[in-house]
Amino acid sequence: MHFFNRITHQTPESVELEFTLAGIGSRAWALLIDYHILTFLIVGFLFIWSFIAYQVVEAWNRIFRNTDVGLWMLAIAFLVTFFLYTGYFVLFETLWQGQTPGKRFAKIRVVRDDGRLVSIQQAVLRSLLRPFDDILFLGAFLVIFSGREKRLGDLVAGTIVIQTETSHTPANFSVSDSASNLMTQLLQSEADFSQLLPDDFAVIREYLQRRKAMSKQAKEKLSLELAKQTKKIIALEKLPQAVTPDTFLEAVYLAYQQDRQ
Amino acid sequence: MSQFSSSSLMQPLSVGNVVTAGIRIYRSHLKEYFLLALKAYVWLLVPVYGWAKFAALSALIARLAFGELVNQPESINSAIRHVNSKMWQFLLAGLLLFVIGFGIIIGFGIAVGIITVIFAALAAAKNLVLTIVGVLIFIAGLFAALLGMMWLFTRFYVFDLPLVVEDNIDATSTISRSWELTKGYVWRILGISFVAWLITLPLSIAVQVVSSIIQAIYTVLLQESSPVFTGIYFIVIMALSFASGAAILPFWQAVKAVVYYDLRTRREGLGLKLRDRDV
Protein backbone atom coordinates (compact mmCIF):
# COMPACT_ATOMS: atom_id res chain seq x y z
CA MET A 1 0.00 0.00 0.00
CA HIS A 2 1.26 3.45 -0.88
CA PHE A 3 0.89 6.03 1.80
CA PHE A 4 2.28 8.87 -0.23
CA ASN A 5 1.75 9.85 -3.84
CA ARG A 6 4.86 9.43 -5.92
CA ILE A 7 5.25 10.78 -9.40
CA THR A 8 7.97 10.34 -11.95
CA HIS A 9 9.12 12.76 -14.56
CA GLN A 10 11.24 11.89 -17.55
CA THR A 11 13.65 14.54 -18.74
CA PRO A 12 14.48 14.89 -22.47
CA GLU A 13 17.76 13.14 -21.66
CA SER A 14 15.76 10.10 -20.53
CA VAL A 15 16.67 10.60 -16.93
CA GLU A 16 13.86 9.56 -14.68
CA LEU A 17 13.19 11.74 -11.69
CA GLU A 18 11.01 10.55 -8.86
CA PHE A 19 9.31 12.78 -6.35
CA THR A 20 7.19 12.10 -3.32
CA LEU A 21 4.33 14.57 -3.22
CA ALA A 22 3.94 16.58 -0.06
CA GLY A 23 0.50 15.34 0.96
CA ILE A 24 -2.35 17.25 2.54
CA GLY A 25 -1.01 16.87 6.09
CA SER A 26 2.34 18.53 5.49
CA ARG A 27 0.76 21.22 3.36
CA ALA A 28 -1.83 22.04 6.00
CA TRP A 29 0.90 22.07 8.64
CA ALA A 30 3.06 24.42 6.56
CA LEU A 31 0.12 26.71 5.85
CA LEU A 32 -0.78 26.79 9.51
CA ILE A 33 2.71 27.97 10.42
CA ASP A 34 2.92 30.48 7.56
CA TYR A 35 -0.46 31.99 8.34
CA HIS A 36 0.52 32.41 11.97
CA ILE A 37 3.69 34.25 11.00
CA LEU A 38 1.76 36.31 8.46
CA THR A 39 -0.95 37.21 10.97
CA PHE A 40 1.72 38.30 13.39
CA LEU A 41 3.34 40.48 10.71
CA ILE A 42 0.08 42.04 9.55
CA VAL A 43 -1.22 42.72 13.05
CA GLY A 44 2.14 44.22 13.96
CA PHE A 45 2.07 46.45 10.90
CA LEU A 46 -1.52 47.60 11.50
CA PHE A 47 -0.72 48.34 15.12
CA ILE A 48 2.26 50.54 14.25
CA TRP A 49 0.47 52.06 11.29
CA SER A 50 -2.52 53.11 13.37
CA PHE A 51 -0.18 55.21 15.52
CA ILE A 52 1.56 56.74 12.55
CA ALA A 53 -1.68 57.38 10.70
CA TYR A 54 -3.21 59.04 13.72
CA GLN A 55 -0.29 61.46 14.01
CA VAL A 56 -0.29 62.19 10.29
CA VAL A 57 -4.03 62.87 10.18
CA GLU A 58 -3.81 65.18 13.17
CA ALA A 59 -0.93 67.14 11.74
CA TRP A 60 -2.43 67.31 8.28
CA ASN A 61 -5.76 68.57 9.53
CA ARG A 62 -4.07 71.24 11.58
CA ILE A 63 -2.22 72.54 8.54
CA PHE A 64 -4.55 72.02 5.58
CA ARG A 65 -8.01 71.40 7.04
CA ASN A 66 -8.43 68.58 4.57
CA THR A 67 -10.12 65.51 6.02
CA ASP A 68 -9.54 63.15 3.12
CA VAL A 69 -6.14 62.12 4.39
CA GLY A 70 -7.65 59.56 6.78
CA LEU A 71 -9.01 57.64 3.80
CA TRP A 72 -5.58 57.73 2.20
CA MET A 73 -4.04 56.27 5.32
CA LEU A 74 -6.62 53.50 5.27
CA ALA A 75 -5.98 52.83 1.59
CA ILE A 76 -2.26 52.56 2.24
CA ALA A 77 -2.93 50.15 5.10
CA PHE A 78 -5.00 47.93 2.79
CA LEU A 79 -2.39 48.05 0.09
CA VAL A 80 0.47 47.16 2.42
CA THR A 81 -1.55 44.33 3.95
CA PHE A 82 -2.16 42.95 0.48
CA PHE A 83 1.52 43.20 -0.38
CA LEU A 84 2.49 41.51 2.86
CA TYR A 85 0.05 38.69 2.16
CA THR A 86 1.21 38.02 -1.39
CA GLY A 87 4.76 39.22 -0.95
CA TYR A 88 5.46 36.87 1.93
CA PHE A 89 4.98 33.78 -0.22
CA VAL A 90 6.55 35.26 -3.35
CA LEU A 91 9.61 36.49 -1.50
CA PHE A 92 10.31 33.28 0.38
CA GLU A 93 9.46 30.90 -2.43
CA THR A 94 11.80 32.74 -4.79
CA LEU A 95 14.64 33.35 -2.37
CA TRP A 96 14.51 30.06 -0.47
CA GLN A 97 14.13 27.88 -3.58
CA GLY A 98 10.47 27.07 -3.23
CA GLN A 99 10.26 27.10 0.53
CA THR A 100 8.59 29.37 3.06
CA PRO A 101 9.29 29.18 6.80
CA GLY A 102 6.25 26.90 7.18
CA LYS A 103 7.29 24.70 4.27
CA ARG A 104 10.82 24.48 5.59
CA PHE A 105 9.48 23.37 8.95
CA ALA A 106 7.16 20.82 7.34
CA LYS A 107 10.02 19.68 5.07
CA ILE A 108 8.28 20.36 1.75
CA ARG A 109 9.16 22.43 -1.30
CA VAL A 110 7.49 23.88 -4.38
CA VAL A 111 9.07 22.93 -7.70
CA ARG A 112 7.96 23.14 -11.31
CA ASP A 113 6.27 20.14 -12.89
CA ASP A 114 9.59 19.09 -14.39
CA GLY A 115 11.44 19.38 -11.11
CA ARG A 116 13.18 22.68 -11.81
CA LEU A 117 13.24 25.40 -9.18
CA VAL A 118 10.36 27.87 -9.16
CA SER A 119 11.05 31.38 -10.35
CA ILE A 120 9.29 34.57 -9.38
CA GLN A 121 6.72 34.02 -12.12
CA GLN A 122 5.38 30.78 -10.64
CA ALA A 123 5.60 32.13 -7.11
CA VAL A 124 3.50 35.16 -8.04
CA LEU A 125 0.84 33.07 -9.77
CA ARG A 126 0.59 30.70 -6.83
CA SER A 127 0.39 33.57 -4.41
CA LEU A 128 -2.27 35.51 -6.33
CA LEU A 129 -4.51 32.46 -6.64
CA ARG A 130 -4.13 31.58 -2.98
CA PRO A 131 -7.25 33.47 -1.84
CA PHE A 132 -9.38 31.51 -4.35
CA ASP A 133 -7.99 28.26 -3.01
CA ASP A 134 -8.82 29.35 0.52
CA ILE A 135 -12.45 30.12 -0.32
CA LEU A 136 -14.62 27.15 0.70
CA PHE A 137 -11.43 25.12 1.17
CA LEU A 138 -11.29 24.58 -2.57
CA GLY A 139 -7.53 24.09 -2.49
CA ALA A 140 -7.75 21.52 0.29
CA PHE A 141 -10.28 19.45 -1.65
CA LEU A 142 -8.16 19.64 -4.80
CA VAL A 143 -5.06 18.52 -2.91
CA ILE A 144 -6.87 15.61 -1.25
CA PHE A 145 -8.71 14.33 -4.28
CA SER A 146 -6.54 15.08 -7.31
CA GLY A 147 -3.81 12.71 -8.37
CA ARG A 148 -1.02 15.24 -8.45
CA GLU A 149 -2.21 17.19 -5.42
CA LYS A 150 -2.50 20.48 -7.26
CA ARG A 151 -4.52 23.38 -5.97
CA LEU A 152 -5.65 26.12 -8.38
CA GLY A 153 -2.41 28.02 -7.96
CA ASP A 154 -0.39 24.92 -8.78
CA LEU A 155 -2.52 24.15 -11.83
CA VAL A 156 -2.07 27.60 -13.28
CA ALA A 157 1.59 28.03 -12.39
CA GLY A 158 2.50 24.49 -13.39
CA THR A 159 4.04 23.57 -10.06
CA ILE A 160 3.93 20.66 -7.64
CA VAL A 161 4.73 20.49 -3.96
CA ILE A 162 7.11 17.71 -2.98
CA GLN A 163 8.77 16.39 0.14
CA THR A 164 12.35 17.46 0.59
CA GLU A 165 14.15 14.17 0.46
CA THR A 166 15.84 13.36 3.72
CA SER A 167 19.19 12.22 2.55
CA HIS A 168 21.04 9.95 4.90
CA THR A 169 21.56 11.76 8.15
CA PRO A 170 25.13 11.57 9.36
CA ALA A 171 25.73 9.31 12.32
CA ASN A 172 25.28 11.35 15.44
CA PHE A 173 25.67 8.78 18.16
CA SER A 174 28.73 8.13 20.25
CA VAL A 175 30.35 4.75 20.53
CA SER A 176 31.78 3.60 23.84
CA ASP A 177 35.49 2.77 24.31
CA SER A 178 34.78 -0.80 25.23
CA ALA A 179 33.07 -1.16 21.86
CA SER A 180 36.22 -0.16 19.96
CA ASN A 181 38.20 -2.68 22.02
CA LEU A 182 35.68 -5.34 21.21
CA MET A 183 35.84 -4.39 17.55
CA THR A 184 39.54 -5.28 17.26
CA GLN A 185 38.86 -8.57 18.98
CA LEU A 186 35.94 -9.28 16.66
CA LEU A 187 38.02 -8.57 13.59
CA GLN A 188 40.64 -11.03 14.77
CA SER A 189 38.06 -13.67 15.65
CA GLU A 190 36.36 -16.13 13.35
CA ALA A 191 33.41 -13.75 12.83
CA ASP A 192 32.50 -13.45 9.15
CA PHE A 193 31.41 -9.91 8.42
CA SER A 194 30.84 -10.57 4.75
CA GLN A 195 27.62 -12.31 5.78
CA LEU A 196 26.28 -9.04 7.07
CA LEU A 197 24.40 -7.36 4.22
CA PRO A 198 24.14 -3.59 3.79
CA ASP A 199 20.47 -3.82 4.76
CA ASP A 200 21.38 -5.49 8.05
CA PHE A 201 24.04 -2.89 8.71
CA ALA A 202 21.48 -0.18 8.03
CA VAL A 203 19.16 -1.69 10.64
CA ILE A 204 21.93 -1.77 13.25
CA ARG A 205 22.92 1.77 12.41
CA GLU A 206 19.31 2.88 12.60
CA TYR A 207 18.95 1.25 16.00
CA LEU A 208 22.08 2.94 17.36
CA GLN A 209 20.88 6.22 15.93
CA ARG A 210 17.42 6.07 17.47
CA ARG A 211 17.99 4.17 20.71
CA LYS A 212 18.12 7.35 22.81
CA ALA A 213 14.46 8.11 22.16
CA MET A 214 13.34 4.57 22.99
CA SER A 215 11.80 3.46 26.23
CA LYS A 216 14.17 1.52 28.50
CA GLN A 217 12.21 -1.71 28.44
CA ALA A 218 11.70 -1.77 24.69
CA LYS A 219 15.33 -0.87 24.11
CA GLU A 220 16.60 -3.77 26.22
CA LYS A 221 14.39 -6.22 24.41
CA LEU A 222 15.21 -4.92 20.96
CA SER A 223 18.97 -4.70 21.49
CA LEU A 224 19.09 -8.24 22.83
CA GLU A 225 17.10 -9.49 19.87
CA LEU A 226 19.26 -7.65 17.35
CA ALA A 227 22.48 -8.77 19.05
CA LYS A 228 21.40 -12.41 19.03
CA GLN A 229 20.47 -12.29 15.35
CA THR A 230 23.67 -10.49 14.41
CA LYS A 231 25.76 -13.00 16.32
CA LYS A 232 24.12 -15.77 14.35
CA ILE A 233 24.55 -14.01 11.02
CA ILE A 234 28.26 -13.37 11.44
CA ALA A 235 28.64 -16.95 12.68
CA LEU A 236 30.24 -15.98 15.93
CA GLU A 237 30.33 -18.93 18.30
CA LYS A 238 31.35 -17.21 21.47
CA LEU A 239 31.83 -13.61 22.42
CA PRO A 240 35.44 -12.68 23.23
CA GLN A 241 34.21 -11.10 26.43
CA ALA A 242 30.91 -10.61 28.19
CA VAL A 243 29.39 -7.34 27.00
CA THR A 244 25.98 -5.69 26.89
CA PRO A 245 23.99 -6.07 23.66
CA ASP A 246 24.45 -2.35 23.01
CA THR A 247 28.23 -2.55 23.18
CA PHE A 248 28.21 -5.60 20.94
CA LEU A 249 26.07 -3.83 18.34
CA GLU A 250 28.34 -0.78 18.47
CA ALA A 251 31.35 -3.02 17.96
CA VAL A 252 29.69 -4.73 14.99
CA TYR A 253 28.86 -1.31 13.57
CA LEU A 254 32.54 -0.32 13.75
CA ALA A 255 33.87 -3.68 12.62
CA TYR A 256 31.62 -3.76 9.57
CA GLN A 257 33.00 -0.43 8.41
CA GLN A 258 36.59 -1.54 9.07
CA ASP A 259 35.96 -4.77 7.25
CA ARG A 260 34.75 -2.97 4.14
CA GLN A 261 37.81 -0.81 3.82
CA MET B 1 8.69 1.31 -4.88
CA SER B 2 6.67 1.29 -1.72
CA GLN B 3 7.50 3.56 1.17
CA PHE B 4 8.18 0.59 3.37
CA SER B 5 10.13 -1.68 1.10
CA SER B 6 13.11 -3.36 2.66
CA SER B 7 15.61 -0.85 1.35
CA SER B 8 13.95 2.08 3.05
CA LEU B 9 13.68 1.40 6.72
CA MET B 10 10.61 2.21 8.67
CA GLN B 11 11.48 5.78 9.42
CA PRO B 12 9.57 7.88 11.90
CA LEU B 13 7.02 10.10 10.18
CA SER B 14 6.81 13.87 10.21
CA VAL B 15 3.76 15.65 11.67
CA GLY B 16 2.23 16.30 8.27
CA ASN B 17 2.94 12.81 6.99
CA VAL B 18 1.12 11.24 9.93
CA VAL B 19 -2.03 13.09 8.90
CA THR B 20 -1.51 12.35 5.20
CA ALA B 21 -1.01 8.65 5.86
CA GLY B 22 -4.18 8.62 7.98
CA ILE B 23 -6.24 10.28 5.29
CA ARG B 24 -4.88 8.03 2.56
CA ILE B 25 -5.61 4.85 4.48
CA TYR B 26 -9.15 6.08 5.05
CA ARG B 27 -9.51 7.04 1.39
CA SER B 28 -8.49 3.62 0.16
CA HIS B 29 -11.04 1.89 2.43
CA LEU B 30 -13.65 4.60 2.42
CA LYS B 31 -16.74 2.41 2.15
CA GLU B 32 -15.75 -0.31 4.62
CA TYR B 33 -14.64 2.12 7.32
CA PHE B 34 -17.63 4.40 6.84
CA LEU B 35 -20.10 1.52 7.13
CA LEU B 36 -18.37 0.22 10.25
CA ALA B 37 -18.49 3.68 11.78
CA LEU B 38 -22.15 4.07 10.85
CA LYS B 39 -22.88 0.74 12.49
CA ALA B 40 -21.05 1.95 15.58
CA TYR B 41 -23.16 5.10 15.71
CA VAL B 42 -26.43 3.21 15.38
CA TRP B 43 -25.37 0.97 18.27
CA LEU B 44 -25.02 4.09 20.42
CA LEU B 45 -28.84 4.12 20.66
CA VAL B 46 -28.74 0.92 22.72
CA PRO B 47 -27.64 1.61 26.30
CA VAL B 48 -24.58 -0.14 27.79
CA TYR B 49 -24.34 -3.06 25.34
CA GLY B 50 -24.50 -0.66 22.41
CA TRP B 51 -21.90 1.61 23.95
CA ALA B 52 -19.51 -1.30 24.31
CA LYS B 53 -20.21 -2.08 20.65
CA PHE B 54 -19.45 1.50 19.71
CA ALA B 55 -16.13 1.43 21.54
CA ALA B 56 -15.24 -1.94 20.03
CA LEU B 57 -16.17 -0.98 16.47
CA SER B 58 -14.24 2.27 16.55
CA ALA B 59 -11.21 0.41 17.92
CA LEU B 60 -11.71 -2.10 15.12
CA ILE B 61 -11.26 0.63 12.52
CA ALA B 62 -8.00 1.63 14.18
CA ARG B 63 -6.86 -1.99 14.15
CA LEU B 64 -7.59 -2.33 10.44
CA ALA B 65 -5.68 0.89 9.75
CA PHE B 66 -2.73 -0.32 11.82
CA GLY B 67 -2.72 -3.56 9.83
CA GLU B 68 -2.28 -1.53 6.66
CA LEU B 69 0.63 0.35 8.20
CA VAL B 70 2.63 -2.71 9.18
CA ASN B 71 1.87 -4.28 5.83
CA GLN B 72 -0.29 -7.03 7.30
CA PRO B 73 -3.79 -6.14 6.14
CA GLU B 74 -6.51 -8.10 7.86
CA SER B 75 -9.97 -9.10 6.70
CA ILE B 76 -12.80 -7.36 8.49
CA ASN B 77 -14.29 -10.65 9.66
CA SER B 78 -11.17 -11.91 11.37
CA ALA B 79 -10.63 -8.50 12.96
CA ILE B 80 -14.23 -8.47 14.20
CA ARG B 81 -13.76 -11.86 15.82
CA HIS B 82 -10.69 -10.59 17.61
CA VAL B 83 -12.39 -7.41 18.76
CA ASN B 84 -15.64 -9.06 19.88
CA SER B 85 -13.76 -11.28 22.29
CA LYS B 86 -12.61 -8.19 24.15
CA MET B 87 -15.75 -6.09 23.72
CA TRP B 88 -16.35 -5.36 27.40
CA GLN B 89 -12.73 -4.40 27.91
CA PHE B 90 -13.25 -1.55 25.45
CA LEU B 91 -16.20 -0.26 27.42
CA LEU B 92 -14.22 -0.58 30.63
CA ALA B 93 -11.25 1.28 29.14
CA GLY B 94 -13.64 3.97 27.92
CA LEU B 95 -15.19 4.30 31.37
CA LEU B 96 -11.78 4.49 33.02
CA LEU B 97 -10.77 7.20 30.59
CA PHE B 98 -14.00 9.03 31.34
CA VAL B 99 -13.23 8.94 35.08
CA ILE B 100 -9.66 10.11 34.45
CA GLY B 101 -10.92 12.88 32.17
CA PHE B 102 -13.40 13.93 34.83
CA GLY B 103 -10.57 14.07 37.35
CA ILE B 104 -8.44 16.17 35.01
CA ILE B 105 -11.27 18.64 34.49
CA ILE B 106 -11.89 18.90 38.23
CA GLY B 107 -8.16 19.53 38.70
CA PHE B 108 -8.35 22.24 36.06
CA GLY B 109 -11.32 23.78 37.85
CA ILE B 110 -9.44 23.81 41.15
CA ALA B 111 -6.40 25.39 39.49
CA VAL B 112 -8.55 28.12 37.95
CA GLY B 113 -10.19 28.66 41.34
CA ILE B 114 -6.82 29.15 43.03
CA ILE B 115 -5.67 31.56 40.33
CA THR B 116 -8.90 33.55 40.68
CA VAL B 117 -8.48 33.78 44.45
CA ILE B 118 -4.92 35.07 44.04
CA PHE B 119 -6.10 37.61 41.47
CA ALA B 120 -8.97 38.75 43.69
CA ALA B 121 -6.67 39.13 46.68
CA LEU B 122 -4.21 41.23 44.67
CA ALA B 123 -6.96 43.33 43.11
CA ALA B 124 -8.55 43.97 46.50
CA ALA B 125 -5.45 45.90 47.58
CA LYS B 126 -6.56 48.68 45.20
CA ASN B 127 -3.00 49.27 44.15
CA LEU B 128 -2.38 49.71 40.42
CA VAL B 129 0.89 47.78 40.35
CA LEU B 130 -0.55 44.92 42.36
CA THR B 131 -3.62 44.79 40.11
CA ILE B 132 -1.46 44.60 37.01
CA VAL B 133 0.60 41.84 38.62
CA GLY B 134 -2.67 40.11 39.46
CA VAL B 135 -3.89 40.29 35.87
CA LEU B 136 -0.58 38.94 34.60
CA ILE B 137 -0.65 36.08 37.10
CA PHE B 138 -4.23 35.34 36.11
CA ILE B 139 -3.46 35.19 32.38
CA ALA B 140 -0.25 33.20 32.82
CA GLY B 141 -1.91 30.84 35.30
CA LEU B 142 -4.90 30.25 33.05
CA PHE B 143 -2.60 29.55 30.15
CA ALA B 144 -0.49 27.14 32.19
CA ALA B 145 -3.59 25.35 33.50
CA LEU B 146 -4.97 24.98 29.99
CA LEU B 147 -1.68 23.64 28.67
CA GLY B 148 -1.45 21.28 31.62
CA MET B 149 -4.92 19.97 30.93
CA MET B 150 -4.13 19.45 27.25
CA TRP B 151 -0.85 17.77 28.15
CA LEU B 152 -2.61 15.33 30.46
CA PHE B 153 -5.34 14.51 27.95
CA THR B 154 -2.78 13.90 25.23
CA ARG B 155 -0.99 11.31 27.36
CA PHE B 156 -4.12 9.17 26.93
CA TYR B 157 -4.45 9.81 23.21
CA VAL B 158 -3.80 6.25 22.00
CA PHE B 159 -5.63 4.63 24.92
CA ASP B 160 -7.54 2.02 22.88
CA LEU B 161 -4.81 1.03 20.42
CA PRO B 162 -2.71 -1.29 22.60
CA LEU B 163 -5.88 -3.10 23.66
CA VAL B 164 -6.97 -3.73 20.10
CA VAL B 165 -3.55 -4.42 18.58
CA GLU B 166 -1.38 -6.09 21.21
CA ASP B 167 -1.89 -9.34 23.05
CA ASN B 168 -2.26 -9.80 26.80
CA ILE B 169 -3.48 -6.28 27.37
CA ASP B 170 -6.56 -5.38 29.38
CA ALA B 171 -8.53 -2.22 30.08
CA THR B 172 -6.12 -0.89 32.71
CA SER B 173 -2.83 -1.84 31.11
CA THR B 174 -3.88 -0.32 27.79
CA ILE B 175 -4.19 3.05 29.50
CA SER B 176 -0.79 2.77 31.13
CA ARG B 177 0.66 1.72 27.77
CA SER B 178 -0.72 4.93 26.26
CA TRP B 179 0.86 6.93 29.08
CA GLU B 180 4.19 5.25 28.48
CA LEU B 181 4.19 5.51 24.68
CA THR B 182 3.26 9.18 24.54
CA LYS B 183 6.04 10.16 26.93
CA GLY B 184 8.04 12.99 25.37
CA TYR B 185 5.83 13.25 22.30
CA VAL B 186 2.93 15.30 23.67
CA TRP B 187 3.54 18.47 21.65
CA ARG B 188 3.99 16.44 18.49
CA ILE B 189 0.68 14.70 19.03
CA LEU B 190 -0.99 18.02 19.74
CA GLY B 191 0.41 19.41 16.49
CA ILE B 192 -0.88 16.36 14.63
CA SER B 193 -4.32 16.72 16.21
CA PHE B 194 -4.41 20.37 15.29
CA VAL B 195 -3.57 19.69 11.64
CA ALA B 196 -6.06 16.81 11.53
CA TRP B 197 -8.74 19.02 13.02
CA LEU B 198 -8.03 21.66 10.41
CA ILE B 199 -8.64 19.10 7.69
CA THR B 200 -11.96 17.99 9.17
CA LEU B 201 -13.05 21.62 9.25
CA PRO B 202 -14.56 21.74 5.72
CA LEU B 203 -16.79 18.78 6.49
CA SER B 204 -17.93 20.13 9.85
CA ILE B 205 -18.71 23.49 8.29
CA ALA B 206 -20.71 21.82 5.50
CA VAL B 207 -22.68 19.83 8.08
CA GLN B 208 -23.31 23.00 10.08
CA VAL B 209 -24.63 24.76 7.00
CA VAL B 210 -26.93 21.89 6.03
CA SER B 211 -28.35 21.50 9.53
CA SER B 212 -29.03 25.21 9.85
CA ILE B 213 -30.84 25.11 6.51
CA ILE B 214 -32.95 22.22 7.78
CA GLN B 215 -33.60 24.14 10.95
CA ALA B 216 -34.73 27.16 8.95
CA ILE B 217 -37.11 25.01 6.92
CA TYR B 218 -38.39 23.49 10.12
CA THR B 219 -39.17 26.86 11.70
CA VAL B 220 -41.12 27.84 8.59
CA LEU B 221 -43.10 24.62 8.73
CA LEU B 222 -43.56 24.91 12.48
CA GLN B 223 -46.24 27.53 11.96
CA GLU B 224 -48.63 24.72 11.20
CA SER B 225 -47.21 22.74 14.10
CA SER B 226 -47.87 19.06 13.73
CA PRO B 227 -46.20 16.14 15.50
CA VAL B 228 -45.45 14.58 12.12
CA PHE B 229 -43.14 17.43 11.14
CA THR B 230 -41.43 17.40 14.50
CA GLY B 231 -40.87 13.67 14.15
CA ILE B 232 -39.44 14.01 10.66
CA TYR B 233 -37.27 16.89 11.78
CA PHE B 234 -35.69 14.88 14.57
CA ILE B 235 -35.13 11.88 12.36
CA VAL B 236 -33.47 13.99 9.68
CA ILE B 237 -31.24 15.81 12.17
CA MET B 238 -30.30 12.52 13.82
CA ALA B 239 -29.51 10.87 10.48
CA LEU B 240 -27.40 13.85 9.51
CA SER B 241 -25.40 13.87 12.72
CA PHE B 242 -24.88 10.10 12.57
CA ALA B 243 -23.75 10.25 8.97
CA SER B 244 -21.34 13.11 9.57
CA GLY B 245 -20.03 11.49 12.73
CA ALA B 246 -19.54 8.25 10.84
CA ALA B 247 -17.69 10.10 8.10
CA ILE B 248 -15.22 11.67 10.53
CA LEU B 249 -14.75 8.84 13.04
CA PRO B 250 -12.67 6.62 10.68
CA PHE B 251 -10.44 9.58 9.88
CA TRP B 252 -9.66 10.16 13.56
CA GLN B 253 -9.20 6.46 14.17
CA ALA B 254 -6.86 6.14 11.20
CA VAL B 255 -4.82 9.13 12.34
CA LYS B 256 -4.70 7.64 15.83
CA ALA B 257 -3.49 4.36 14.38
CA VAL B 258 -0.71 6.17 12.51
CA VAL B 259 0.24 8.08 15.67
CA TYR B 260 0.37 4.80 17.58
CA TYR B 261 2.44 3.21 14.82
CA ASP B 262 4.78 6.19 14.78
CA LEU B 263 5.14 6.19 18.56
CA ARG B 264 6.00 2.53 18.54
CA THR B 265 8.54 3.15 15.80
CA ARG B 266 10.16 5.87 17.83
CA ARG B 267 9.80 4.49 21.33
CA GLU B 268 10.18 0.79 20.65
CA GLY B 269 11.93 0.54 17.30
CA LEU B 270 8.98 -1.20 15.68
CA GLY B 271 10.06 -2.65 12.35
CA LEU B 272 13.76 -2.63 13.18
CA LYS B 273 14.69 -6.21 12.61
CA LEU B 274 17.22 -8.13 10.63
CA ARG B 275 15.92 -10.22 7.81
CA ASP B 276 15.26 -13.85 8.43
CA ARG B 277 17.86 -16.01 6.83
CA ASP B 278 16.60 -19.53 7.18
CA VAL B 279 16.92 -20.23 3.47
Average pLDDT for all residues of chain A: 89
Q: For the residues shown, what is the average pLDDT of chain B?
A: 90
The proportion of residues in beta strands of chain A is 5-15%
Count of individual beta strands of chain B: 0
Main beta-sheet strand count, sense and barrel state of chain B: none
Largest interface, and how many residues on either side? Answer: A-B, 45 and 48 residues
SSE string of chain A, helix = H, strand = E?
EEHHHEHHHEHHHH
Anisotropy-based shape of chain A: elongated
Oligomeric state of the chains in view: heterodimer
Give the number of helices of chain A: 10
Describe the secondary-structure layout.
The complex is a heterodimer of chains A (about 260) and B (about 280).
Chain A: E1 6-10, E2 16-20, H1 23-64, H2 69-95, H3 101-106, E3 108-112, H4 120-134, H5 138-145, H6 152-157, E4 159-163, H7 177-188, H8 198-210, H9 216-233, H10 245-260
Antiparallel strand pairs in A: 1-2, 3-4
Helix pairs in contact in A: 1-2, 2-4, 7-10, 8-10, 9-10
Chain B: H1 15-28, H2 30-43, H3 49-69, H4 76-84, H5 87-124, H6 128-154, H7 161-165, H8 171-181, H9 186-222, H10 227-268
Helix pairs in contact in B: 1-9, 1-10, 2-3, 2-10, 3-4, 3-5, 3-10, 5-6, 5-8, 9-10
Short summary:
The complex is a heterodimer of chains A (261) and B (279). Chain A has 261 residues and is mostly helical. Chain A is built from ten helices and four strands, in the order ββαααβαααβαααα.
Q: How would you describe this structure to a colleague?
A:
The complex is a heterodimer of chains A (261) and B (279). Chain A is mainly alpha-helical. Chain A has two domains: 6-163, no CATH class; 177-260, no CATH class. In chain A, 62% of the residues lie in helices and 8% in strands. Chain A is built from ten helices and four strands. Chain A has helices spanning 23-64, 69-95, 101-106, 120-134, 138-145, 152-157, 177-188, 198-210, 216-233, 245-260, and strands spanning 6-10, 16-20, 108-112, 159-163. In chain A, a hairpin with a 5-residue loop joins strand 1 (6-10) and strand 2. In chain A, helix 1 packs antiparallel against helix 2, helix 8 (198-210) packs across helix 10 (245-260) and helix 9 (216-233) crosses helix 10 (245-260). The radius of gyration of chain A is 29 Å and the shape is elongated. The model of chain A has no long low-confidence stretch (mean pLDDT 89). Chain B is mainly alpha-helical and 279 residues long. Chain B has one domain (22-268). Chain B is 78% helix and 0% strand. Chain B has helices spanning 15-28, 30-43, 49-69, 76-84, 87-124, 128-154, 161-165, 171-181, 186-222, 227-268. In chain B, helix 1 (15-28) crosses helix 9 (186-222) and helix 5 (87-124) packs antiparallel against helix 6. The radius of gyration of chain B is 23 Å and the shape is globular. Chain B starts with 14 loop residues before the first helix and ends in an 11-residue tail after the last helix. Residues 1-8 of chain B have low confidence and may be disordered. The chains are: A mainly alpha (261), B mainly alpha (279). The interface between A and B is large, with 45 and 48 residues.
